[in-house]
């Protein structure tokens, strides 16, 4: 007969392996290993395009400096469950972050994106889990940067 402990272990194992489906291949390999693009446009114009895109998905600006833009949103139910089982708990305040680093390179700006899940524990400790290696997440943000690049550079050439 299965004990409660063994039953719980089997349920957790099934959940974790059920979520371990093969990830799609990354659409590009970048020097940073993260989604990135070099865009011929002013940094403020690039930031505005990123913010405009991300607010459609519930993100708000958490931090904005000359070289860094951090956006944050509440997690959905599936993400919340995953965070509670890995880096947080049922009492943690969970969110998803999208960070963009900007580096001027001549007349262009190199933009590197980084995504993470974050759990703020009741005592104030913050745990994070990088999700850049997830093929779906990587490809979504790489496509976003590619689209912003095409839109801004296309507008500049007109």
Please outline what is shown here.
This protein is α+β, with helices and mostly antiparallel strands and 158 residues long.
Note the main attributes of this structure:
158 residues; 4 helices; 30% strand; globular
Task: Write up this protein.
This protein has 158 residues and is an alpha+beta fold. The protein has a single domain, classed as Alpha-D-Glucose-1,6-Bisphosphate, Chain A, domain 4 (2-Layer Sandwich). It is built from four helices and six strands. It has helices spanning 4-18, 43-54, 77-86, 135-156; strands at residues 36-39, 60-64, 68-74, 93-105, 108-120, 126-130. Strands 1, 2, 3, 4, 5 and 6 form a six-stranded antiparallel β-sheet that branches. Strand 5 and strand 6 (126-130) form a beta hairpin. Helix 2 crosses helix 4. The N and C termini lie far apart (73 Å). The relative contact order is 0.19.
- The low-pLDDT segments are 5-10, 13-17
Strand proportion, as a percent range, falls in: 25-35%
- Helical content stands at 25-40%
Counting DSSP E segments of at least 2 residues, the number of strands comes to 6
Subunit organisation of the chains? single chain
Q: Could you say which structural class the secondary elements and strand pairing correspond to?
A: alpha+beta
CATH topology: Alpha-D-Glucose-1,6-Bisphosphate, Chain A, domain 4
- Order of secondary-structure elements: HEHEEHEEEH
How would the global form be characterised?
Answer: globular
Number of discrete domains? 1
Task: Calculate the terminal CA-CA distance, rounded to whole Å.
Answer: 73 Å
Number of helices: 4
Describe the main β-sheet briefly.
Answer: 6 strands, antiparallel
Rg over alpha carbons = 19 Å
What is the CATH class?
Answer: Alpha Beta
Mean pLDDT over all positions:
86
Q: Which architecture per CATH?
A: 2-Layer Sandwich
């Amino acid at each position: 007969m299965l004990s409660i402990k063994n039953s719980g272990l089997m349920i957790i194992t099934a959940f974790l392996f059920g979520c371990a489906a093969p990830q799609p291949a990354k659409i590009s390999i970048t020097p940073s290993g993260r989604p990135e693009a070099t865009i011929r446009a002013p940094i403020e114009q690039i930031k505005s395009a990123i913010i405009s895109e991300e607010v459609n998905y519930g993100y708000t600006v958490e931090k904005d400096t000359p070289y860094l833009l951090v956006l944050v949103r509440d997690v959905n139910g599936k993400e919340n469950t995953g965070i509670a089982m890995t880096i947080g708990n049922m009492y943690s305040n969970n969110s998803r972050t999208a960070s963009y680093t900007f580096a001027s390179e001549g007349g262009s700006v190199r933009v590197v994106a980084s995504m993470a899940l974050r759990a703020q524990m009741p005592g104030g400790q913050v745990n994070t889990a990088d999700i850049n290696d997830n093929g779906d997440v990587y490809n979504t943000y790489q496509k976003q940067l590619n689209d912003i690049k095409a839109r801004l550079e296309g507008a500049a050439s007109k």
